[in-house]
Amino acid sequence: MSGETQTSAEYIKHHLQNLTYGQLPDGSWGIAHSAEQAKEMGFWAINLDTTIIAFVLGSIFLFFFARAAQKASAGVPTGLQNFVEWVVDFIDTSVRGSFTAKNDMVAPLALTIFAWVLLMNLMDLVPIDYLPLIAHAAGLPFLKVVPTTDPNATFGMSLAVFVLVVFYSIKMKGLGGFVGELTLQPFGKFGLPANIFLEGVNLIAKPISLALRLFGNMYAGEMIFILIALMGASWAGATFGSTLLFGSQVVLSLGWAIFHILIVTLQAFIFMTLTIVYMDMAHQEHH
């Protein structure tokens, strides 16, 4: 991308395109070099940037928290131990405030979701052209650095939560109790069609609301950073992808980045809180 002249539309499309791996039109497997090729790859294509970056960030979370647990002592704590204990206390308070049943898995689940989503969201604060320029120098056609701006990632996480919600609903209430909630609430046996419709919509809305809320907010934030970069290039007379563009977008993006810190943190907190609430609902029995 460095040294190439792009129109505003091309620049935006380039930054919104994932690095996609799948089956090419000629039958071979490889990386798509255009949005059209990525679309033709179909359902079994993999967004390599989303997958790899999410995996790396998850590994970073596990490494530092495991290291803090191994090095924990009753004496004077290190800075890392202090930070991890603060995060764990924060998660524990959130779980105690929203989850009324007993399930030892909920707190670790909430911690994992909050830390992982927060780290993925924080990638939005990296200057918009920095990592794509490095990827381009390495021969990669695209690199979308914020996993949560990819609906595949947000829906993947929300569907995992949905599976847990259904599993614990059946485990705690039995299959009959779970089906009974879907068919007999809220109008009783005489309102069966309405019950199935209302409860079905309520059930399906859980993963959709989780996925779309996170994706929508992060995608909108990413678009603003892209537009700020374009505005900086226009003012500076820079070529898209040039060093001058990179410098101007750092300066102009600073104000939005400071405000955006609140958004990325809030979205991680909301995703975690809704997960806790949905898990609590799965453990409640209606009589």
Question: Quick summary of this structure?
Answer:
The protein is mainly alpha-helical and 287 residues long. The chain is built from 9 helices and 3 strands. Helices cover 71% and strands 3% of the residues.
Characterise this structure.
A hairpin with a 5-residue loop joins strand 1 and strand 2. The chain has 9 helices and 3 strands; from the N terminus they run H-E-E-H-E-H-H-H-H-H-H-H. It has a 3-stranded antiparallel beta sheet with strand order 2-1-3. The relative contact order is 0.14. Helix 5 (106-122) runs antiparallel to helix 9. It has helices spanning 8-15, 35-40, 48-71, 79-98, 106-122, 130-137, 151-184, 192-236, 243-283; strands at residues 20-23, 29-31, 46-47. The chain starts with 7 loop residues before the first helix and ends with a helix. The protein has one domain. The chain has 287 residues and is mostly helical. The mean pLDDT is 86.
Question: Main traits of this protein?
Answer:
single chain, 287 residues, mainly alpha, three-stranded antiparallel beta sheet, 9 helices, globular
Number of domains: 1
User: What proportion strand?
Assistant: under 5%
Helix content: over 70%
Using the CA coordinates, give the radius of gyration: 23 Å
N-to-C series of helices and strands: HEEHEHHHHHHH
The count of β-strands is: 3
The main sheet comes to: 3 strands, antiparallel
* Oligomeric state as shown: single chain
- Output the structural class: mainly alpha
Low-confidence stretches: none
> Gap between N and C termini, in Å?
62 Å
Enumerate how many helices there are, as a single number. Answer: 9
**What is the molecular shape?**
globular
Strand order of the largest sheet: 2-1-3
| Overall pLDDT score | 86
